[in-house]
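Table S2 (text version). Query chain:
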Amino acid sequence: MDMKSGQEPLLSRKEDVVGCGKKRPFWVSSAKVILRVVMWVIFITWAAFIFLYPSDFVTDLYHKWRQATEGTLFGITGSIFLLFSGPILLIAILGFAYIVLAGEEEIHEKKSSKFPRFRLWTFPVLVDGPFGVVSAAEMIGIVLFTAYVVWAFAAYTVKNSELVSWFHVPSRERSILMLELAGLRLGMIGLFCTAFLFLPVARGSILLRLIDIPFEHATRYHVWLGHLTMLLFTLHGLFYVIGWAMEGRLARELMDWKNIGIANLPGVISLLAGLLMWVTSLPGLRRINFELFFYTHQLYVVFVVFLALHVGDFLFCFAAGGIFLFMLDRFLRFCQSRRTVDILSARSFPCGTLELVLSKPANLHYNALGWIFLQVRELSWLQWHPFSVSSSPLDGKHHLAVLIKVLGGWTGRLDRLVSSASETEHLLQRHSKLTASVEGPYGHASAYHLTYENLILVAGGIGISPFLAILSDVLHRLKDGKPCMPKNILIVWAIKTSDELPLLHTVGMESIFPNFSNSLNLEIQTYVTRESQPSLEEGKVIEPVNSAVFPASKGCGMSVLAGTGNIIWSGIYLIVSTVGLVITVALLDVFYINPYHVASWWYKGLLFTACMAVSVLVFGGLVIGLWHLWEIKTSSHEAEKNTENGTVKQNEPKVQKDSSKEQYVSTTLYGQRPDFRGIFETMSDRWGNVDIGVILCGPPALQTSVAKECRTQNLKRRGNQAIFHFNSHSFDL
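Corresponding structure-token output:
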């Protein structure tokens, strides 16, 4: 690449802007601005109210609000729900309207920037520690949550001291009372944290689409919040246990189940369920026994239900909004996963890697940095495993591919299943069939790899999978003249043995875009860390050990019932279910709770969770049924249209060998590991004063090394040097 092109201003051409298209009408632009402002005002007000809740001023406002709404149809429960859960649901509904107005391709369009600049989400601040790699934006979130917990506990401690001073009791009783009050306050803080706990794991949530945080990133926020929440709830229970033990009434209090007031026994059950989930989710134990972690995490149902029984309906409403959004997402995922999906083809490579090609409908969209969850019922009815998509959406409308590394028991059984199916097809000359269940695809709402003119893709082992999808996506876009920023791509791939080299040839670059070197400068550096010299087979394209193509059945593609699918149906599902919750609670109040004077806290908490479930199953289920019928009608119409036009295409992609080595620079180094300092400095000198997107997919040690070098290069940067933007595509569940 010449120096002139490296010095050109980033995003200098309008046609390169991702998401650019027809100019929107003025009213659409105005509505988007208004919606954005309203959502920010609601969120800031809601967050500020929670943050300042321990203060006397906000507490007084809260009590005045309760008194003003106490005689209404929904009573105290409705007033608390409107204050603490309503805002998050309202933001989700407004977010639906915003996404519809913006258009799915323009939600996160990147504006042109004459000069490179730092971004909070891609600047790594912490690179090694208990949180892993933490960006500046994430660090702000951590500081705010920490400040809230410290401030709230300090404010409550002052209030507790003032309250205890009113009672003239011996010092021992005073200490016991302080312990129990401290436990009460910690439980309240934990309840507020629970309001956020379930938001990151609602994989297809409109909220995540709105702020463009994919589920693989959001999962780590759930982990952080989970540790904080369980620490608070554990201290909450421990303080009460110590106080009761000092008073000699521990056993009686633990078994107590009050009708009016806090029911202790449900709280004990909820805490035990939470502790089991917490302990089995610790990194060491999770890696040793993933299945134990997975199965115990299903206790979240017990945790939530008995939490509602413990605190009652109106206190449960402090956290109900986030839980309700999670329930909506979970039910939608359940419905999508009921569909049996055809595996169109399977290949097994000598390096212990499988490639599966799955059938999907043309109207189910994803981008090249997508993920899916996969279940194969012949192996297990309960286990779901996440895999990065290795195909581009432009490779074909009717299929999606994933690469799977054979590492554990489940993947080993899958490899044997593919081998058995392949042998059946070749020896018996008959077609066998493989099927799977799929959730997703999930991932970024925007294809952010298309927003950088210069890319460094760092992969470790099977981490090359999403970068094959990126490479294919970029080549297709360049060939078709679609918006595409990348003009310079460096792939740095670290592998243990040369057996993994054939994975690069799963993308037929020359067949996608002949002479692509005129439009794309591509360089691939491969580091074989456990071999000191090339093998005799170097340079040969090694064929898969086993491969098979399976027959596809009509209507056996992936279901479009995904939260990341059609935004109109997703929004209707959210709105109808929310309205259904209001209607269900209103009917319950009018025809049961108020006429029969139901007053038991735990029972009303149970009824409220039942209303949440009914609204999702009945009202949401009605929308899902209509959505499913729409899917069938749309698929049938598309099939008829293709038949009339004579454009019916084979679902399975053709396997093509890569013969494009002369089109790019490829270097394979043996017995070495990547020197990221040298690589980054070389690219900075070569590309000049530009933004460089660094996308990584690999183990934690590799993430730490790359993030540390990005931070180092940015901190010592001079005016004419590049800015490195760190993006992790790694998913550790």
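Notes on Table S2: The chain is about 50% helix and 10% strand. The chain has a mean pLDDT of 84.
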